[in-house]
TrEMBL record:
Gene3D superfamilies: P-loop containing nucleotide triphosphate hydrolases. Residues 2-227 form the ABC transporter domain. It comes from the Bacteria. GO terms for molecular function: ATP binding; ATP hydrolysis activity. Keywords: ATP-binding, Nucleotide-binding, Transport. Coiled coil: none annotated. This is ATP-binding cassette domain-containing protein. Residues 301-343 are annotated as: Disordered. The lineage of its organism: Bacteria, Bacillati, Actinomycetota, Actinomycetes, Kitasatosporales. InterPro entries: AAA+_ATPase (IPR003593), ABC_transporter-like_ATP-bd (IPR003439), P-loop_NTPase (IPR027417). SUPFAM superfamilies: P-loop containing nucleoside triphosphate hydrolases (SSF52540). It holds the Pfam family ABC_tran.
């Protein structure tokens, strides 16, 4: 369990994290969301004692990270996918971490196999693609078989197979009763992975709730109907006390009524329906609506959510800033070296 209480961080006069209080509980994947510059990475660094808070505290199973005797056995984390010496092989990088934390040598081969790097275990990491580097970082996080895992943008650089793998891995870890805390800009992927959400904006807590409740509270849900007799259908709906609006695609939209009831009403009046479909906003739309006033950088001409009547505007592309580079792209990206970081 990770517990934050009044966590605050200033960089000079700039307030990066503002009085954050929330708990990351075991048994579920908790997604950590926020616009760029919202303080997510700073918060995660303070959890690991890489940055000192200006005020407040953070506890890992009741203790500060610095108080953990063998930290990799308690917490596994991937925050910086470039913190490894490029001249080391993947095997030797993990071996150094294992030896400094009293982890058996055999565990190195196990985690390399888990992340799919056994065939390149003896190769120097400086030749790894971004996706391979991400896998090495995930292997480092898993090395101590920890109770708590923290991942910052874990799918960055992974190919579709790798994204599917890490999604299932995080779910399996949570199902084992572990605490899984993951930050990502990829809303579609987070919607498939997380069960609980913590959302921050400009360093402040905006939401701490389940995925379903978050979407329900921050989005518009309605039922869309299509009929060859649209005017008659609208009259029937109005007479029944269900005001209907014409959507931008020409469909009839009704809020606050179950689809089954609307279907029964149309059947009672012998109105043919070509479509009867409940519409629910995506996580991306709900997130954009909630954080519209907390976004630090807006592209020129970008419309804020809610500018148009009805549904929220979608983002101009998931992960558009700092988005993923396909696995196989040459370049950096490796796991966290906690000894070098002072963990």
């Amino acid at each position: 369990m990770i517990e934050l209480e009044g966590l605050t961080k200033y960089y000079g006069e700039k307030l990066a994290v503002d009085n954050l209080t929330f708990t990351v509980r075991p048994g579920v994947v908790t997604g950590f969301l926020g616009p760029n510059g919202s303080g997510k990475s700073t918060t995660m660094r303070m959890v690991l004692d890489l940055d000192n808070p200006s005020a407040g505290s953070v506890r890992i199973d009741g203790r500060h990270y610095r108080e953990l005797v063998d930290p990799l056995r308690s917490v596994g984390a991937l925050l910086d996918a470039s913190a490894v010496h490029g001249g080391r092989s993947a095997y030797n990088h993990l071996l150094c971490l294992a030896q400094s934390n009293g982890i058996p040598r055999a565990r190195v081969a196990e985690v390399l196999d888990m992340v799919g790097l056994s065939s390149v275990a003896r190769k120097r990491s400086k030749g790894f693609s971004l996706g391979m580097g991400q896998r090495l970082g995930i292997a480092a996080a898993l090395l101590g078989d920890p109770r708590i895992l923290m991942f910052d943008e874990p799918v960055n650089g992974l190919d579709p197979e790798g994204i599917h793998w890490i999604r299932n891995l995080m779910r399996d870890l949570a199902a084992q009763g572990r605490t899984v805390f993951v930050s990502s800009h990829l809303m579609a992927e987070m919607a498939l992975t997380a069960e609980h959400l913590v959302v921050i904006g400009q360093g402040r807590l905006l939401a701490d709730t389940s995925m379903a409740e978050f979407i329900a509270r921050n989005s518009r849900s309605f039922v869309r109907l299509r009929s060859p007799e649209p005017e008659r259908l609208r009259d029937v709906l109005h007479a029944a006390g269900h005001p209907a609006a014409v959507g931008p695609d020409g469909g009839i939209e009704v809020e606050g009524v179950q689809a089954a009831r609307l279907g029964e009403l149309a059947a009672e009046h012998r109105i043919t329906l070509h479509e009867l479909s409940p519409q629910r906003a995506s996580l991306e739309e709900a997130f954009m609506r909630l954080t519209a006033e907390a976004v630090e950088y807006h592209a020129h001409g970008q419309r804020r959510p809610g500018a148009a009547a009805g549904a929220a505007q979608a983002a101009p592309g998931a992960g558009s800033e700092g988005g993923p580079v396909p696995e196989g792209t040459a370049g950096g990206g490796w796991g966290q070296d906690w000894r070098k970081k002072g963990g």
